[in-house]
Structure formats: structure tokens, C-alpha cells
Write a structure and sequence with these properties.
By secondary structure, the protein is an alpha+beta fold. The chain is built from one helix and three strands, in the order H-E-E-E. A hairpin with a 2-residue loop joins strand 1 and strand 2.
Length: 51
């Protein structure tokens, strides 16, 4: 099984391939954390990768 970074990268690549634009990676604010934040048209997608 791949590493956490590999799953995070795969999730990012899939979103970008489907037309999303990368807003942030490894975003942290206080106790909140998101691995990937993307935007597609008027949709902001916040992703926490788990495996």
C-alpha cells in the first residue's frame, strides 16, 4: 500500500484532471487542517485524505 503522500498526490491529480484549480495544499488554521483545497466554477472543495 502506498504512503499518505502518494494518496494525497493522487487525489490532487484527479481533481486537477477533472477541471479543478488548486487553491491550497496542506492548509492549517488553528485546529483545522485540510490536505487539498480546489475550486471549480463556483464550488470550493475542501479535502482531507484518509486511507
Amino acid at each position: 500500500m502506498g504512503s499518505y503522500i502518494t494518496f494525497e498526490r493522487l487525489a490532487t491529480e484527479m481533481l486537477l484532471a477533472s477541471g479543478h484549480h488548486l487553491v491550497a495544499k496542506d492548509f492549517r488554521m488553528d485546529r483545522f487542517e485540510a490536505d487539498v483545497i480546489t475550486k471549480n466554477d463556483d464550488v470550493l472543495l475542501v479535502v482531507e485524505v484518509k486511507y
